[in-house]
Amino acid sequence: MSGHSKWANIKVRKGAQDAKRGKVYTKHAKLVEIAAQRGGDPFTNAALRAAIDNAKADNVPNANIERAIKKGTGELKGDRMEEVLYAAMGPGGVACLIECMSDNKNRTLSNLKVNISKHGGAFSDSSSVLWMFQRKGIVIAKEPAGGGQKILEEMELELIDFGAEDLEPDGEILTVTTDVHQWSAIRDFLKNNGWELESAGVKYMPTQKTAIDVATAEKLSDFISSLEEDDDVTEVHTNAEIL
Fold it and tell me: pLDDT tens digit string along 150-203?
């Protein structure tokens, strides 16, 4: 019995891992497809290049990426994927922006409203939340092997020249905040200097923050996790600040 139980547990864990991996692949495929709608050549389409780089960083198979590009350019038939932005107020009055990619907006909206209400939030008009955020370019990269603070210090002025507005080193990881139009130049500069890209693109950053305690933060984490279980949800941004 113990052997059977162990095998059952392994299968459950593997199933959960496979499901998580599948969701990651699906998210990246949608991002690639959306970006490819503006052109299927990553050398002339910076958004597509970033989407491909991010997908490869998460080990998405090349076949999945190529299929997503073909869907985006219309080479493969199917319902057109669209980007949709929704909003909600979560636990503690925290503002949430919910980015989705969907081929059926009615389905996405219906599922989202049910999920938000079920987990203690309140659906909101996006305009009532959007003013608390701004779009920024965010590039996250890992320093080269054998690198360190010296290399970053040597690069700081060049990063600023390329449009860096803020640099946040955290161990081996560097987060660079830029204007929405400058992130691709920062990405290429870091990559050409041996940095390993973790992610790059445009994100919503809060300008007005809501302070919450640790207990509320745990509820908010559960709320966000419940939203992210929906395959149409690609990212949830909040203005929470933990006291």
Answer: 677 888 899 999 999 999 988 889 999 999 988 889 988 998 888 988 888 889
**What is the per-residue burial (b if ≥16 Cβ within 10 Å, else e) of 114-130?**
ebbeebebebbeeeebb
- CA 97 from chain centre, in angstroms, equals 12
Other Cβ atoms within 10 Å of 49 Cβ, number: 18
Fold classification of 2-73 is Arc Repressor Mutant, subunit A (1.10.10)
Task: Supply 163's token pair.
Answer: 């449009």
Handedness of CA 79, 55, 19, 7 (dihedral sign): positive
Q: What pTM value is reported for the model?
A: 0.74
Q: Does domain 82-131+208-242 have CATH number 3.40.190.10?
A: no
Instruction: Give, for 23, the enclosing helix (H) or strand (E).
Output: helix 2-36
Q: For residue range 198-236, list pLDDT tens digits in order.
A: 888 889 999 999 999 999 999 999 999 999 989 899 889
